[in-house]
User: Fold this.
Amino acid sequence: MKMQYKLLATAIAIAALSACGGGGDSASSPSPSPSTSVTPTTVIKGTAAVGAALPNATVQAKCAVGSGTATTAADGTFTLNIQGATRPCVLSVATPDGQTLHSVLESGTGTSAVANITPLTELVTASIAGGSTSDFFSNFDATAQGKLTSAGVSAGTANVVLVLSGTVDLTGIDPLKDTLVAAHGDTPGNALDQRLDTLGTALASSKTSISDLSEAVASNKGSTDGIKTLLNPASATCATYRSGKYQKVDLTANTIQRFTVDAVALTRTNDATSASEQFQAYASEACRFGNTDARLLVSKSGIGLERRAGAPSLLIPEQTIPLSELAGDWVAMSFERETNPGNYGSGLIQFNVDGAGKFTKAADCGMSGCGQPWPAGDLPTFSANANGGFDLTDTSGTARAFGFKGVDGQLAVVIVHANGFMVARHPVARVLPEVGFTNAYWDASLNDMGVTDITTFSNTVTAVNTTAHTYTRQRNDGRIDTWYDNVPFTGIRYRPAVAPVNGIPGAGEAISMNLSNTGLTISINASGKPFYSISIDRP
Assistant:
């Protein structure tokens, strides 16, 4: 035991001498302290481009942990070195025209990654964010970070591929990570860069900005036809009148015609008869075409209202809406007659549709609420029509229906039959406008014989009462009226009658609803002589 002790003591002494450098010709490198660790650096490379490279641009990145900036080279390439970064990350770059593009890097543990920043990645970011990409970047919190899983990024990319199908072919392309060679100097762009050129051309011809398209992608729900119309070529005098297929729905004549519109040439061709006609732009008003008697007014969503010989029609951009998207509660305003011939009367209706298109309940309503539910045997059913839109069938026959989805994903439906029509939407709570908000519009008002009169007005909001949920506005002819939001129920507004004062016209008691993000507002009489008004916001 004593020998073992001496050997151990000798070993300890030798170790001590070694640690002090005794007996050696060179010093060894000290070992790192167990409490000290080297923080890895995450390297993010990519290219910033809009077709052409974005040179000398500042790229910013925010990660779950860590952030960094870099400046792009002449070819748009950049490298970000972020020490101690934890993914996921979101990136941004400003373009020369003042827009900001975004991109994302999904969650993961790798310290080397690729993230291009282009209009395509801006759309992918919008799809993932489900809201403003600027807010997504600015408030990159745990909720935002949680959306950047591998599955979330893949789903966002797939949605953009679907949105752009028919305009930009992204088959087999990952806009976030694929090698991007941007056009610069004498160097042409590669295949991915050419896709950016194609998107840029479509945006220019449709008079749509990438920010508008990004906002549409972010807010869309379900099927994407509501966004695709944004990329069709637009009229020189009306950015929202775009080429494509349209269904012309004659509201009081109960006829449906399908047209192919060339908005650039201002022609349209009847698909059934091949008859073609020309519309002339109205010199003093954008988005107005034709003359006084044959007038076409186009809203900000692309839905048009046409009047010929006093009869009104809606010109609805053709969209394929899945039957399942009709499911839910609806509120509708109708203009119908009991017999033909006969006078029209307005109506307010609430109904519910299941996922198969069947009405589960319905009732006629008024200011005091809804009356007895419709009998179960009278409840109709939606079904797809091969010629576009839907059929709506009940015991009395079949009506035609056409859905239109705005860029925000909100859906409206127009239903037309032999004795009238109705316009419906899902009820969404109204939000009070701000004082000073001004709106210019055309007002197409149908009387009880179905004859349409078109006038032009503007309103300015002069007061808002958040407690009473009311707002007061003044029309450009001096008329003042007050509206009650979400009365008599959600998504509807109510105006008491307005008496004429000192030559300023009055107004009848009315209820009204906006068709979300379409630029159309429907109003009907709440009492007195029947009328049905369709207002179209002017650009």
